[in-house]
Amino acid sequence: MNPLSPSLRASAQTRACFTLSAAATAVAAAFPLLACAQSEPQPQATVAAAGNDSTQQTSDSQTLQRVTLTAGRPSSLPTEIPTTIEGIDAKTMERSINATDAEDALKYLPSLLVRKRYIGDYNHAVLATRASGTGNSARSMVYADGILLSNLLGNGAGFTPRWGLVTPEEIERVDVLYGPFSAAYAGNSVGAVVDYITRMPTQFEAHVKAQAFTQDFKLFNTDKSYSGHQTSASIGDKNGPWSWWINVNEADSNGQPLVFANRLVSAGVPVTASAIPVSGAVLDKNPKNQDWLMLGTTTQYHTLQDHAKVKLAYDISPTIRASYTFGYWHNSTDGNVESYLRDAAGNAVYTGNVAINGRQYTLTPADFTPNKNVLEHLTHGFDVKSNTKGTWDWEIAASLYDYNKDILRSWMPSTASATSAANPNAGRITDMAGTGWNTVALKGIWRPQDAAGHTVEFGYQREAYKLRTSVFDTANWTDGAASGLFSGFNGDTQLQSLYAQDAWRINQQWKTILGGRFEQWRADNGSIASKTTVQPFGTRDEHYFSPKAALSYHQDSDWTYKASVGRAVRMPTVSELYQGSLSGTNIVNNDPNLKPEKSWTSELTAERSLNNGAGILRATFFHERTKDALYSQVNAAASSTVTTIQNVDDIRTNGIELAYQASDAFVRGLDLTGSLTYTDSEILRNDKFPASVGKQQPRVPNWRANFVATYRQDDKLSYTLGARYSGKQYGTLDNSDPNGNSYTGFGSFFVADVRVRYQLARQWTGSIGIDNLNNAKYWAFHPYTQRTVMAELKFDY
């Protein structure tokens, strides 16, 4: 964001040679993790990210070309960056963002949107990018200190990155690499790669932070305040070859209602004697502009989250470091319900036949279903890396993400039958213990001494995903034991890759990067079970090659031009292949023979350095052509009425992204950041659902814009005004949902945010902020938060 941010200056060629330590990833074994390398010296490369995140900049016009990273900073990014990078550092975040969750760091970056519905949203906060909407979580990759946080077990709202493994207070920097242009990443990078770098101290330091927040939420017949608080503490030090860091965080959050029980007005039938006359239903329009009644709310979450992070690093020699990262995340959530309906005595009505405005409707237990969710997830990261800056450097890295405990309990009372009475306490238990993923990477860098200007990066990577889901009946949904299997789905996928890319600095003006990635994908152990049947699926083995290329021309101290092109193959996830149900022995809603998505992406960029390197103006034209895109739809060509995950034949996306950043713009102390993105994403062919051809890709709006202005009155006081805009979008492939301002709709929005930060004393800082200052009411299937006020107090030692 802020042009002084070290992340900003890494935009592909212009920010040449981003010498970072690659991922601090991990398995549950032994090597401690290697922190970052420092960039290779180069003239006019003066941006430093050092010590306690202090960023320095000279007046040289080439300041924006390079990022220098000190030891202690692992990163998943490769040494050579062949595309656009945007980012933000810790100081800019603290000044300008009301950050309560890690994903808030991305709030104002170009073309990005995180579907964060409330503070602490753990299961629907999907990242959307230039050509991918909030239903495509598997089209981006999120790392923290090299550990993969993207949940690539599935694709969609239920498979969000595990943002909770990072707290805002421990973030040192966030970098976002746009597009699949680096050979170092799998096809899931087609949208973007997000890399969180968390703190690693160079001397003793300690931090404590407390936050409180509240919103007044008014929608339909809900008029309540929902509040929460969060505390975080960190401590770390470096003693000789050893360095260590510990961060703990606890959050207690009450979110607004997310789901609304409803009935189409047209579904009403003549009133019978059994119907209870009720009041309180709210008439509204659904996304298709049909009249419907809002009957009450469900999934009003009360969330308790605990986080702990331990990082250790040891300098084996002056050029070799080993590191280890352990992360713990515990989430306990109660999903509460409330009916709007009242009988003549004022009692809430939740079940049975009801009469509303002369029509009868039947309420079922599924309309108001409370639930409880308890998760305990663990991560381990290990890394050993050399940093000689000579002819050879290498890295060994591994990571493990483990669903140590993952239980969802839902109320689902049984109905009476000829042999049994109804059980009002019955429900279901969904257990995902044993689910998780692990990664291994062997990486090398070769700088041939007899071939000036070449840097060759290569490596081997393995990613393995395991999905284990069992659904049981239980006599007591709140705390009863499992009594019998209701359904289950299991499966494994594995991706093994070899990659290489050569960055050749031809001369002072020209540079090219050529690379490729060979991938072997395997899916096995797939099965779907019902109460009486288990349906296994066969093994699939496939392989693909994805070439990459980039070219940069540095015209002079002010202008740089870049072009990048890359292929990405996004493999079907375990969930897309195997998570479904059975009708007899037939799979109902998934297809184990899905094809992978295959995308060709390209971009052309022109960058202009402003005010001797204190700002930058960038224009990027991007194009993407995706074959066999994975979407949930009805196979109309086969006269089916069942929605399944299928391949959409051809989607084309064109767009332009404008980005501007400047420090001390117009007046001293004023930092400006802004971006504007236009996207035209059209479905060109879809044989299974022809009604979608010529329509806009779901959840990809035509227009997006962000703007942030921060005024630093002095070293102690700053004021920030931020704004976010998203244009019209659709949630369906055939764009049959024109009303986005409704439950289950996807609407346009304009939201303003403010923040004031003041340093109370040498070690004390206080901040007050408001998100959604204009109190916009907008939707992404569920309602977003309304005006939210927050305050925080921080102590730094």
UniProtKB/TrEMBL annotation:
Keywords, ordered alphabetically: Cell outer membrane, Ion transport, Membrane, Receptor, Signal, TonB box, Transmembrane, Transmembrane beta strand, Transport
UniProt-annotated location(s): Cell outer membrane
Matches recorded under CDD domains: ligand_gated_channel
Residue ranges occupied by any TonB-dependent receptor-like beta-barrel domain in the UniProt entry: 321-773
Region (Disordered): 46-81
Single GO biological process annotation from the record: siderophore transmembrane transport
One CC-aspect GO term: cell outer membrane
GO molecular function ontology, one term from the record: siderophore uptake transmembrane transporter activity
PROSITE patterns: TONB_DEPENDENT_REC_3 (PS52016)
Lipid bilayer topology: Multi-pass membrane protein
Main location class: membrane
Compositionally biased intervals (Low complexity): 53-63
Any single Pfam family the record assigns to this protein: TonB_dep_Rec_b-barrel
Domain TonB-dependent receptor plug: 80-193
Signal sequence, renumbered to the chain: 1-37
Family assignment from sequence similarity: Belongs to the TonB-dependent receptor family.
PANTHER family, A to Z: COLICIN I RECEPTOR-RELATED, TONB-DEPENDENT OUTER MEMBRANE RECEPTOR
Annotated protein name in UniProt: TonB-dependent receptor
Organism: Undibacterium terreum
